[in-house]
Amino acid sequence: MQKRRVERIDKSKRPGSLPYIWKKISKNPGAMAGLILLCLFIVMSFVSPYFMKSYSEVDMRDRFATPSWEHPFGCDEIGRDIMSRVFYGARYTLSIGVGAVFLAATVGIFLGAIAGYSGGIVDSVLMRLMDILQSIPGLVSSIAVVTALGPGLINCIIAIGISYMPQFARLIRANILGIRGSEFIEAATIINCSTGRIIFKHLIPNSISPIIVQISLMIAQAGLTASTLSFLGLGVKEPMPEWGSMIAGARNYIRDFPHMVIIPGIFIMLTVLSLNLLGDAIRDALDPKLKD
Amino acid sequence: MLLYIIKRLLLIIPIILAVTIIIFTIMNFVPGDPATISMGGERITPEQLEVLRENMGLNKPFFERLSTYLYNVFFHLDFGVSYTTGSPVGPELLVRFWTTFRIAIAGIILTVLIGVPLGIRAAIRANTVEDRVSMFLTLLGYSMPPFWLALLLVLLFSLTLGWFPSYGSTSFMHYVLPTVCVAIGGIAGLARQTRSSMLEVIRSDYVTTAKSKGLTENKVVYGHALPNALIPIITVIGSQFGRLIGGVVVVESVFSIRGLSVYLLNGINTRDYPVVQGSLIVISFLFAVVMLIADMFYTYSDPRIKARYARIKKSGDKNAKAAG
Hints:
The complex is a heterodimer of chains A (about 290) and B (about 325).
Chain A: H1 2-8, H2 18-27, H3 29-51, H4 82-118, H5 120-134, H6 138-149, H7 153-179, H8 183-190, H9 195-203, H10 209-231, H11 243-250, H12 259-286
Helix pairs in contact in A: 2-12, 3-4, 3-12, 4-5, 4-7, 4-10, 4-12, 5-7, 6-7, 7-10, 8-9, 10-11, 10-12, 11-12
Chain B: H1 2-28, H2 34-38, H3 46-56, H4 62-76, H5 89-124, H6 129-143, H7 146-160, H8 172-202, H9 205-212, H10 217-254, H11 260-269, H12 273-301, H13 303-314, H14 317-323
Helix pairs in contact in B: 1-4, 1-12, 5-6, 5-8, 5-10, 5-12, 6-8, 7-8, 7-10, 8-10, 9-10, 10-11, 10-12, 11-12, 13-14
């Protein structure tokens, strides 16, 4: 009798499980709108090149064309269709955002877990290193790393990833310090589990939920930083249609052709907004304490 | 309290030292030979290049160069000589530091003055239309790229309405748009945090007690709820500063303000590495100073930290060691 009841418990009611998170998100209209918009951007980014003008096709007759039926978003200073450029460009902001945060999370979790589990001098050294990294403002340290590595998509991911790493390391370390003394870790030590196994099979999985929250909130910020770097000419460069670099190229014409600046910016904002809405919903689902 | 401030001030030194070492090391990996860069486009023989390298100290081992640089920076405020202009970097950095500092501080003040009351009001009116609208607007502000916002402000207030100048930094009017632009992201973040931490406090028993005593709403909010909600709020103010400094970098570039970040970006474009190094270090220093100020407020608003240091004053050396 008891056993059957356990089996019948709906998975989606167990807090923290994927079906539970999904159920929470699907009930939140803002998050759903964000999710749909993001999916739309991703699909358009990969499908649009097949039926729209190429993002790099130059047509001097269409220089500075304002929005019309033929070019719904107008054209830029050398007659490239802004709509196809903007659609194509979604991949950069999103891939840098996701890539940088996953890099930061992977390295951060690894270092934080080692620091939290081993304690002592290893902990002090690693954490002081993180302190130093955090004492340089995020964008500034990304600029420094990009200067050294040179601009480009991958370098951008590395640069932003490095600046976000300390937050993940701190978070996982604090969590591991909290559960390090628990009985199940003691039990694992007693049955002679290796250190690696304890860290990766027991400690990390049990302190992952705040990390997921952090990841979902950081992707939006990383996307924003990516477009900022490109705007400053340090990220993805022309002729690639990154939104930030499109705005940088258009800023000289803002007085007469504001559509060239406004439209890519709206797309950056919508992307970041969607990611933020989604992140907030995931946070609410995983951390009921924070919910208002 | 004083002891805490001194301790915190002393802590800046190792931080800046470490930051300097890291930045110097990163810059060491930058491709390109400084001697060739400093000659610009001029053609020189390999022998001349070798002499130049020797003069610039580039042939010395890494650690020797690092220690010379550290010694010069920390004891003489000498950040080296710019490759492109040939003038010393230090004095230029000092002038530009104040410009950037002004924008950052004005931005922080504006952030706190608007962000906190906005959050409090949203929390008091939780789940009303007003709350929802203001929270949506803050989310929008939080998602807006600062450089785009800066360009939109220029478009509206300088080019269309003509109220404020669109570039430069010579008068008060020049600082209005950059400050607003720098503050918006922080206002949004701070208002959201203030709201959620106020909401947490408003539900607690002592607020109910205060209300049932018949206190006015203002007294309940500002006398009972806010002081208890203040600690997470100040933590967020601190974390918004990092974002704000990033905003300053972008805003200076959009408004062509002769601050640190324009110097930094020019340095990067002309591969003028003493300039890049110097500006990065000074921006980090600015950040450290601003974080210090946030920390002071934090201590001031948290009686627990205050009490810990008050105790040291009374009893002797022994406790000081335990607490410090």
